[in-house]
Protein 1
Amino acid sequence: MTEKSATPVSAGHLLTVSDLTVRFRSHGEAVYAVNGVSFDLDAGETLGVAGESGCGKSVTNLAILGLLPQPAGRVEAGSVQLSGRELTTLREEELRKVRGSEIAMIFQDPMTSLNPVLRIEEQLIETIRAHRDVTVQAARERAIELLVAVGVANPESRLRSYPHEFSGGMRQRVMIAMALALEPRILIADEPTTALDVTIQAQVLDLLRRLTAERGTATILVTHDLGVLAGMADRINVMYAGKVIESGTTEELFAHPRHPYTVGLLRSIPRLDGEAGGKLVPIEGRPPDLVAEPVGCSFYARCAWRQERCALEAPALVQIDGGTQPIVTTGAGATHVAACFNPVAQAEVAEGRPAAGRR
Ligand SMILES: Nc1ncnc2c1ncn2[C@@H]1O[C@H](COP(=O)(O)OP(=O)(O)OP(=O)(O)O)[C@@H](O)[C@H]1O
Ligand SMILES: [Mg+2]
C-alpha cells in the first residue's frame, strides 16, 4: 500500500519553513541574506531552488540545518518545522541528531563533507555507528550496500580507498552514499553537480532521481541552472535577493512564467528541446548587494516591467494564474505564486519585454 492511500491526509507537511529571515552581522554591518522565505516540502517530493549567485539559496538551507556560520549568522525571524517540531530553537546536541538521520545535505564540493585523511570505510562506518546501535560488521555491510546503490564498482576494495583516490564523480557518489546512510527523510542537495563535467553530472542526477524515488525521500535541489531542474523537480522556488519571488510546479513555471526575473532566467538558459531561434539572453545588470535593508521590489533596477509603485512597495507573493490557463494545483502547496505588481503576460515571454502600450 502506498503511503498516500495508507495514511489519512494530515494538515502538516514534512517540512514547513515560514517567514525565515537570516542576517549576517559583523562590525556594525548587516547582510540581509534571507528575507522572509516560506515553503512546504512533502515526502517524495523534489523541490527545486533556482536563482543567481548570492540570492540566498545556500544560506536558507544552512539555516534549516542550524549550520549558519557563527557568530555572524542568525535566524532573526521565522520558523523551520520538521513534522511540526521547531528546529530553529533546538540545542546543538539535538540538532546534530536531526542532521544526518533526518535531514542530510550534499554539498557542491565533496571534500567539505569527506575527511581527506580517513578511508571511505572509516567514514561510512563512523557515520552509521554514530547514529545507529549496530556492530562494526553490520555497519560495514551497510556501507557496501550503499556503495553498490550509488554505482561504485568493487565496493569492497573501494572501501579501503581515501577520498583523493576517487575521481570527482566518484567522490560525489560516495558523498551521496554518506548522505543516504541513515535514510534521511529529507535530502538537501546544494549544487551537487556543478563541479562535475556534463556526462558525470547527468549520471549523478540520474542516481539522485532514482534513489529519492525508491526511498520516498523529500529532496531540496539547489542549482543556479533551471535546465537541470526541468528534469528533476516537481516544483520550483525561484529566489532573488533573499526572497522567493515565484513558485509553481515545474511544468507551470516553464510554460507560464509570470515574474520578470523568472522570464529572464528562462531566456538565459539553452532550450531543452533544442529548438532553434533560442538565442541566449543574459539578464542585464546585477542583483543588489544585500547590505541595505530592501525597499520596494529588489528586481526593480533590472526590470523591464517595472512601475513607479515597485520602487516603493515590496510586492507580496500571491497566487497567480498562468496567464492563459487556469490556476494549476497538482498537489499540496503546488499553486502558482509570484511576487509582482505587473506580471508578465504570456505573449510577452518570448520577447522578454512588455508589449507596446503596456508601460
Ligand atoms: N558568512 C557570511 N557572512 C556574511 N555574508 C554572507 C555569509 N555567507 C553568505 N553571505 C551572504 O548572504 C547572501 C546569500 O548567500 P548564499 O550563499 O545563500 O547565496 P547562493 O544563492 O547560495 O549563491 P551561489 O549560487 O553563489 O551559491 C549573499 O549576499 C552572501 O554574500
Ligand atoms: Mg550557494
Protein 2
Amino acid sequence: MDEKKAVTASAGTSSALLELSHVGKVYGGKGVVTTALDDISLNVRKGEFVAIMGPSGSGKSTLLNCIATIDSVTGGNITLGGRVITRLRSGELSKFRRDELGFIFQDSNLLDTLTGFENIALALTLKGERPRKVEQAVSDLARKLGIEEVLQKYPQQMSGGQRQRIAAARAIVASPQLILADEPTGALDSKSSAVLLEVLESMNTSMGATILMVTHDAFAASYSSRTVFVRDGRLFNDINRGDCPRGDYYQRIMEVMAFLGGDLDAR
Ligand SMILES: Nc1ncnc2c1ncn2[C@@H]1O[C@H](COP(=O)(O)OP(=O)(O)O)[C@@H](O)[C@H]1O
Ligand SMILES: [Mg+2]
C-alpha cells in the first residue's frame, strides 16, 4: 500500500470515539471452539447512531458485550475516547462502565422496588450528585423524552414500552460517552417499538448521544444514521443514511438483508 495514504488513513481514524481494531473472539478451548468475532475493525464517531444488524448467531451480542467490557476479546483492541478498554484491570471495570457507558437491554432490567424516577435518578446518585441537581436533571429529561406520566409508577405498573423508555432515560441521564443497546425493541410490539426508537433518535439528534444499537430488525435499524452488517462474526457491509428519508433508508437496509439471508426480520 502507498505509505503516505496509510498514514493519512490512520490519522483520520483518530477522530473516532470508539475504535475496534482487528477484534476477535473465540469461545471454548478444548473440544468445541466457536469463532464469534473474526477480525472486526470498526470506528464510531462522536454523535453517530450506529445500528449493527445481522442474523441470529452472527456475533452481534458478543460484539456489544466486548465493547461493554462484559466479555473479553481474544484478539485485537478496543479504544473508547483514546483509552484502551480491552486492557482495563478488573478493579477498573465497574467504574468504567458506570462512568462512560449507558446500557439498554431487551429486558429493561429496572429495579422493581424503585419508581421510574428513582430508577433514572440512581445513575446520578451513584456518582454522588446532589439531590436537587438529580431532581432537576431527571425532570428535564423526562419532559424531553415524554415519560413524565410514568415517573411515579413502579416497573410492574408500566407497559413494556414505558419500561424501555425509562431504561433509555436511565442510560443517558449521566451523560455517558457511549450508549449500548442490545435488541432494545426485541420484546415490544410495533407501536411501542416506534415510540422507543423515536426516543433513541431524539437522544441522538437533539441531545448529542452516541448510540450503538444491535438489532435484527430493519425497521429499528432505519432510525439509525449508519447500519453495519455482520455475518458469521465478520463485517459484511456498511451503509450511511446521509440525508435520505427513513423510508428510503429502510429499503436500502432491506436490499442488503436480501443478500445476507438468514432470519432477519422485516416489517
Ligand atoms: N458464552 C458463550 N459460549 C460459547 N459460545 C457462545 C457464547 N456466547 C455466544 N456464543 C456463540 O457465538 C456466536 C455468536 O453469538 P451472539 O453474539 O450471541 O450472536 P447474535 O447476538 O448475533 O445472535 C454463536 O455461534 C453463539 O452460539
Ligand atoms: Mg444477540
Protein 3
Amino acid sequence: MSSEGERLREVPPAERVLLLPHCLRPSATCPGRPSKEGFQCPEDCQEPCAIRRLKEEALSLGYKAVCIAPGGALALRFLKAQEPKGVVAIACHKELAEGVEAVEELEGPVPEVATLPLSEDGCVDTKVDLDAALELLRRGVEVR
Ligand code: SF4
C-alpha cells in the first residue's frame, strides 16, 4: 500500500474504484441526495462540480465503481462489497488516515490505496486540486 500511488500503475482500471467525499459538492446548489449506497447525483446535473468531473473521468477510464461517501463507515462497506485491487481515495487528512488504517485491517488481500488530500477541507464546500486528482486517476492508464 502506498499513498503516493505509484503501485496503482500495476492495477488495471477495471480493478480500481474511486472514493470521493460528499463535502466536495457545491452545497448551495447541489441537487443530489444521500442514500445508503452513498451520495446520488441526478444524471442531468449540470452544476460545475469536481465530483461530477472526477466521477465521469473514472468511469470513462474503465474504473469499476465510484462511491461518494459521507464518511469512512460507508466507504469501508463499499470496499468490502467491491473488493477492488486498487483504490483512489480523495478526502481530508483525517479521513484518509483513518481509512487507510481500516483498509489494512480488512480481511483478504489488501488493495493498493492511492490517496490525495483535499486542498481545502472543513466538511462543507471543500476543494480538491483537480489536475492532481485527474493525474492520479489516469496513472498507469493509457489515455487516448
Ligand atoms: S454532480 Fe455535484 S452538484 Fe451535481 S448532484 Fe452530484 S455532487 Fe451535487
